[in-house]
Amino acid sequence: MEGSYTVTDMVEEPYPSDDDPMLLAGYHERWQQDGFFIIPRFSSPSTCDAMLDRAVELARTMDYPHGEQERSDEDRRTGTLGSPILAPENNLRDRSDPSLGAETRVSKIFKIHRDSVFHDFATDPALVALIHPLLGGEVDCFLSQFIFKNPGAWGQPWHQDSHYFPFDRAPQVGVWLAVTEATLDNGCLHVLAGSQREPTHRHVLDPRPNANQGYVEIVDHDMSGSVPVLMDPGDLLVFHSQLMHRSLDNTSAGVRAAMVYHYAHRGTVDQSDRPAIINDWLPVPDGVAS
Asked: Rounded distance, CA 107 to CA 90, Å?
């Protein structure tokens, strides 16, 4: 589609099972130039399905008034689940059908990169091998979120993820896996290529009444050169924490699901007085494929 990015605009081939220095160099060149790159078919349909199934399971388990599940004794003993945090969606097309599952009322589930299929993906050697050269050393995965963008859900305004990361080292690397198709109708991401070279701009609170908690907006920069990024299930977007990006509303009849992780230099220090409760610093093994 004219005026939008698809995966074929970014690379010609999916990521190989073994390291390909030439292909990696192409991705990293895109990173330097645009602040992001896309790898088509990075993940299998079965992994996407498993993520969606597990996220639905978590949403239904955590469906109670305060939005945070009390862990079982087994969870506490093994530490495999941690303590996911559920964020409700404030703006939905229809809340009236009691037969719909809890996942239809959820915006995001945070703090799940220690859990089952999400942990497997976060520590996948092929993924970590992509991230290591971008950060120049060992890394931690400090943030994860599964996004249910249900019908009617509002988009998130223009922002830089660095606004949320008051750390002593930069940049951070985000990875955004399309679990379902991302289209113009269901609220795909829009990016401003090259904006990773900007400093962190002032972000103001989202002025829309009833906007989701934590939504902020950049209002002092020209975004006219931005483009939407269209993705298929399994496609992977890797992006710089300074990159300006947004999404629009989901006007379709289906969910736009995605799984997002953020990585930082090993040993990064959170300099805020009150570190975000959604952050959970997990050392990730070296990304060396076996």
From this structure: 8
